[in-house]
Design goal:
Largest sheet: 8 strands, parallel, barrel
Oligomer: single chain
Radius of gyration: 21 Å
Structural class: alpha/beta
Number of helices: 13
Shape: globular
Order of helices and strands: EHEHEHEHEHHEHHEHEHHEEHH
Length: 327
């Protein structure tokens, strides 16, 4: 599992056309990312109302339970994205991320990037300032939905298309439609596409790679399917899951969290490394395995991620292993 500091274990879509669901999103338990949706969950006659609704809900300010606020706009090819951005970016101070669907080529992300730079030039300068202002708002990040065969073959260009690109998302239903294939419980029909997405995200140092939607969420069987899909995705290298119902969030955030076993290993490495450093040792061993700087870096990243997730009590683990010595 990637150890990025960006937490998107669960990305929950909330229909922008439903005032009830928008209100409910603000009283949910902690969720890593809420994406207010203007695309698939909104019918064409409701697009304008959904834009206004999302702008209004964002304009109220932030709530404690939502770590990241995102908006899924309509695709560039639909012709609706520009108006989506014109409206919702009026509440840009409370937007962290844009989710861009049906990204088939680099030009789709060039379009979004150009609008961000034109609309919010201080947050998105054409060139990086020599001395960044720590008080200025960070740029709005982009997540790209990969939904077609063309998108899979264009991944190198897509991954390099925007400095604001922060991750890739796999959209299984549209991908299945594009390839005229049927989704099965095993998900083996998506193996190549999912592997390609994870591999390219890692190769281009994108912090997030978010797996397909689980269409089951109610009852014991739905929870079991969701758990299995999350474990499968984590095993392939994904570090998050798209969610379409609040009931899916807790499972996704638990399965995609760093395990207690990994935290214990990372804490032991960090504790032993302090002692090894004091002794002037650049490499050493733990449990019979060589530990060097890259491994120490990975361990420290795991510890920091675990602290943000809050699933494992990192401080108690540190106390337990503070006496760890390098071998």
């Amino acid at each position: 599992m990637a150890t990025s500091s960006v937490l998107r274990r669960a990305l929950l879509y909330v229909p922008g056309s439903s005032q009830k669901m928008l209100e409910k999103s603000r009283i949910l338990p902690v969720v890593d990312c809420v994406a207010y949706d203007l695309e698939d969950s909104v019918t064409p006659p409701m697009k304008a109302a959904a834009r206004r609704n999302v702008k209004e809900i964002l304009g109220r300010g932030r709530v404690w339970g939502i770590r990241e606020q995102a908006v899924r706009v309509n695709s560039v090819e639909s012709g609706l994205a520009q108006e989506d951005l014109r409206v919702v970016l009026q509440a840009s101070g409370n937007i962290d991320t844009l989710v861009v669907p049906k990204v088939n080529s680099a030009s789709d992300l060039h379009f979004i990037t150009d609008i961000l730079r034109h609309t919010l030039p201080k947050r998105h300068p054409n060139t990086s300032p020599a001395t960044p202002n720590p008080a200025s708002a960070p740029p709005i990040r982009i997540l790209a939905l990969i939904e077609s065969a063309l998108a899979i073959t264009s991944l190198p260009a897509i991954c390099a298309a925007s400095p604001y690109l922060s991750g890739l998302i796999f959209a299984a239903e549209d991908f299945a439609l594009d390839l005229s294939i049927k989704r099965t419980p095993s998900l083996t029909e998506f193996l190549y596409a999912r592997s390609a997405i994870v591999t390219h995200a890692r190769a281009y140092a994108l912090p997030s790679v978010i797996d397909l939607v689980c269409t089951s969420y109610s009852g014991p069987s739905g929870a079991e399917i969701l758990e299995r899909e999350c474990a499968n995705g984590a095993g392939m290298g994904f570090n998050g899951k798209q969610c379409i119902h609040p009931l899916q969030v807790a499972v996704a955030q638990r399965v995609f969290a760093v395990s207690e076993e990994d935290v214990v290993w990372a804490v032991r490495v960090a504790a032993a490394d302090e002692k090894a450093g004091s002794a002037g040792r650049g490499s050493w061993a733990l449990d019979g395995k060589m530990i060097d700087r890259p491994v120490v870096g990975k361990a420290k990243a795991i510890v920091e991620r675990a602290k943000k997730e809050g699933v494992v009590d990192v401080e108690s683990v540190r106390e337990r292993w503070k006496g760890q010595e390098p071998e």
